[in-house]
# Entry
Amino acid sequence: MQANLTKAYALANAQLLRSAPLPKSYTDFLGRKLFLFLLTLQGLGAFALITLGVILRKYGVAANVVHPRIRQEIARSGVALLPMFLFVALALGFLIVGQTVSALAKVGATEYLGSTMVIVVVRELGPLLAAMLVLARVGTANVIELGTARALGEIEALEALGIDPVHYLIMPRVIGMALGIFSLTVYLIIGALVSGYLFAFMQGAPMTPGDYFTQITEAMNWLDFALLALKALSFGFFIAIVTCYHGLAQPLRLEDVSRVAVRAVSQGVIVCVMIDAFFILLYVFS
Amino acid sequence: MSESIKPAIIEMRDVNVATMRDDSRTVVECVNWSVMPGEFWVVGGQQHAGKSDLLMLAAGLMSPATGSSRVFGVETELLGEDQLAERRRIGFVFQGGRLFNRLTVAENVALPVRYQKDLRSTDAAKVVNHLLELLELTTFVDVTPGNMPGNWRLRVALARALILKPELLLLDNPFSGLGARHRQWLLRFLDQLWRGHAWLEGRPLTMVVTTDDLRPWESPARKFALLHEKTFVCLGSWGETTTNHHPAVRELLADAADTNY
# Structure
């Protein structure tokens, strides 16, 4: 357990580099940024592998303590965000789907509606928006909670009690966030598609609900379902990894916590975009 | 020579101690120290002398910069998941308690036993309540640490360290921030634990305490050591400590003499 965090500390020694004086040339500056980026990537990769290892080896360990924590995290990253997601689904339906449906109806191109909706809402906007909202709401809280616990010495206290901090603190958050984002993505997509049709219907689009949903289901294949699930779970896993890594894996002082939270959210956005790009490539080459 | 020699509980040989935050900075050098079963050690030193780091090293929470440190015969560098049994034999009370602020007092105390033995909260309640009664904490059962008086937080930390019935108890500067009444209570309770408390089925507890005041720990049965300017010095008994003319020892005794207990 101690070794897990020690490995992560060793990879998080970019702090010295960050606090070094500003380089005198642009090339040095870019070089330092690149070096820091690679160090962060290495640290995140190692932390992700450590966490994955702990999930696979210790999922059933201390189940009476850890599994209720997993349920709490699912509630926090999923159930508690449902009202907000309902609102966002209505807004998304109105802004994107409703306008697209009525625009396509005006030019008589409603036969493209299904594939357009699948590409825009199911493949792209739904998962990405769900991930961004959970990152903002729960990811930030993760960094602050873990960073504060680290700064107050609670992590050493856990180790002194023979409790693996990755197992007790990180595993529930990773599983909770992955399942939370997956569920919210599904609800967001369904909500956006339904509300989008309602808005389009109110604008007088000449389509029956049956035609609308038949087109969408025909435009989707098994790969869309599989990749959507994989994408949503990947977003959840990596957002939890980035936020927990910044909160837990580096020695912090209380005054560092807010700065680290900002950095974690920025990196969370970058990671989401990278995952999204990876899945676009998968869609293109599949 | 039929009497078998008991192995040391803590054994340090030529150990250099680094800080928890910066493992390249050595705070104590060349420590040679053995803690035998049933001993009660008091390690004195001024602030930032490296007392906490030495204690964390002894507990296996960090590795020595150089040298060999063993606890219950296991190298502290190797005290990982596979040595969980050794870890359970050590109780650690951090300075200030380091309690889990999101959990209540009862949850804080129950966590180690629930995690290590995979118990439901209802299954652990009996043993937790018994320990809370022993430490007079029953009025704070459902209170979170941030909402209880500072004097009582150390008792919660002590209860959390005792719940697994350890064989070695390490306390980092336990008097820090405690009022006179609580200091007296703590001295009495630690003495009972050391001699063999009913909670530990009468088994004597080996203890190491760090402090920046030596005088409250006056007892002929205790052993004393000093941390000063990166050196660790075993002073011996209370009598030997009071006759020691090392300026740092005089300072620790004088500091305490100015304080009313």
Observations:
- Chain A touches chain B at residues 1-3, 61-65, 145, 149, 152-154, 156-157, 159-164, 168, 251 (CB under 8 Å).
- The two ends of chain A are 41 Å apart (CA to CA).
- DSSP finds eleven helices and no strands in chain A.
- Residues 63-285 of chain A form one domain.
